[in-house]
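2024-03-11 09:14:02 INFO queue: dequeued item Shikimate dehydrogenase, len=252
2024-03-11 09:14:02 INFO validating residues
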Amino acid sequence: MEKIEKKENRYGLLGKEISYSFSQAYFTKKFEDAGMVNHSYENFDIPTISRFEAIIAQKNIKGINVTIPYKEQVIPYLSHLDPKAEKIGAVNTVKFTQNGLKGYNTDAFGFQKSMEPLLKPHHTKALILGTGGASKAIRFVLGELGIEHTYVSRTKKKNQFTYEELNQKIIEEHTLIVNCTPLGTYPDIDEKPPIPYSYLGKKHFLFDLIYNPEITSFLAAGKEKNATICNGLKMLELQAEKSWEIWNSSEK
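2024-03-11 09:14:37 INFO prediction written
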């Protein structure tokens, strides 16, 4: 990755091991196409959230996107939370203001707008694979849409399934399955969540928050069973544009 020149108006992505990310190329092209020569977008790739303090102290940063694994861990560093982000319990967009750092969640917007056109009336029950920060926005949207949903995790907790508990009845009842885990992300493209794919059918809709590769092993397994599939690229583009709108709004 070539070194990004830091400009007068700096933006970036906070995460861990994020060289694969779409965001830097997306915003760099956006700035170039718009002739915004004083804007730059960089990766703030840190091993632990404690390093975020050093980033906050730098000059000319206007806004930051947040990805795995810091969507929840970043919250204590913020002065304010947008009401929706507070309700969701995860932040993926931070605006630097005169009154401190304010956190927002644009994942919910991106997911809803990219997923809704593919929803069918029979998609009334959903499984959410993974319980990290990204999954909280998914849960929020499904709740808003009145879709019954249950988390699936490797560990046993109240009101959620473990992967070992998933059986034919559960899979056939839950026709919407959303992968919020990083399993299958480049370069580990052969990985996928351990669900019983043999019980999938044409009524299922598999949504993967991953966008690299375009068709993950999770989505490919659904496609083999004639399920509807969608990756996370459109969601990412929509949430990125919503972030840009937030950073440039007059709200203090």
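2024-03-11 09:14:37 INFO annotate: The chain has a mean pLDDT of 95.
2024-03-11 09:14:38 INFO item closed
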